[in-house]
């Protein structure tokens, strides 16, 4: 059966794999060994005749009884040997019949009723669905709330955003990765430019450069995300003024920072040349230069830079600052403030809802696959059980015929030995009539040879049991076919039910958009948005 077996199938139908019947039952276990297992009694006819003549000369008493009690010792031995063969064959056949009956009983499947089987399938299916009620309800509520928020946002800002979807082709992670990359690039470039201007070399230059680069990128992102986006796109005048202020402050701060770093690098190089001329390079440190003096020296001519290294540093810093402003303005989220946020929130809620639905669908798919495998297994097992039961009955018939043949051979020997004994006895008795006198007549029981009775080996009980088992198997196969057809129809209904929710959501959102286009209004009622 399948690795993940359905629980309802644990006690229905054939529970184990059908194995062929093995009658490991030898004649030797029932006292029939050697020639006796072939029906040979092992008694010599010549010796039987010799003993018959000796018994006749002794003059056995005349008796009218026709019972085995009047038999001679030799005849008693012949009958005993033949009876041992018949008794051994009887126990051999009875044990085989018991084995066949047990085999039929073991592989007679439990009755399968279509109604009960369908209810069991539905019951276990509902257990797979039980967590769908909680998880799907929670996912549905969060998705519905996100849809309401998105529709209300569109209703409030419809004049600005129109019918377009937000520009979120670049995700936030990618934008952050670009910002980190340009920050590292600027930091590495600045470290190379600062390493010769202070005693700590490249390590010291990296510490200063990466700090400046991080501040430069952060100011640019804030100026683009909270400044330019609100200043250029927001509908509310208050937020536009707020955005303009943030953008102005941020851009000015970024320009001043990059010019200050360039002038500071210029002042460091000038101080380095002065220390070199005075022979004090070993004691020179860029931290001895006052940032206040550098800041004051920037004015009134802010572009007055003497070193090409400082110009390269300025150009690199302004480039990175401009990229950071652009990333914050256009790459982190939609240009219209808040639109990307509510859109991503709705998408995440929808994806979570889809994930819950897909998880339920996958669980049900695995469950239905196990159901199909159970039906296929039961079909093959029922057919195999029916075939093996028929083979078991044929084997029992063959064993009965074999037993009858052995018993018949033993009976023929028994009769021939008795005939040989009595004929030899009668001849010897007649030859000694004058000597024996009144005892000369043969006893009356010598006139008739008792025909040995062969065992019947009746198997009516086994045949009735096998017929009942095969009838049960046929009924179960019919029930399996009925339930399997129902299962396929039920699977289609479940799949349609799982996909209908998504279709309804799309239809409701389409109705909302049609209402907006017909009425020409940007207002969407909350109830209508919630239905969507």
UniProtKB/TrEMBL annotation:
<feature type="transmembrane region" description="Helical">
    <location>
        <begin position="240"/>
        <end position="261"/>
    </location>
</feature>
<feature type="transmembrane region" description="Helical">
    <location>
        <begin position="175"/>
        <end position="194"/>
    </location>
</feature>
<protein>
    <recommendedName>
        <fullName>Transmembrane protein</fullName>
    </recommendedName>
</protein>
<keyword id="KW-1133">Transmembrane helix</keyword>
<feature type="transmembrane region" description="Helical">
    <location>
        <begin position="302"/>
        <end position="326"/>
    </location>
</feature>
<feature type="transmembrane region" description="Helical">
    <location>
        <begin position="206"/>
        <end position="228"/>
    </location>
</feature>
<keyword id="KW-0472">Membrane</keyword>
<keyword id="KW-0812">Transmembrane</keyword>
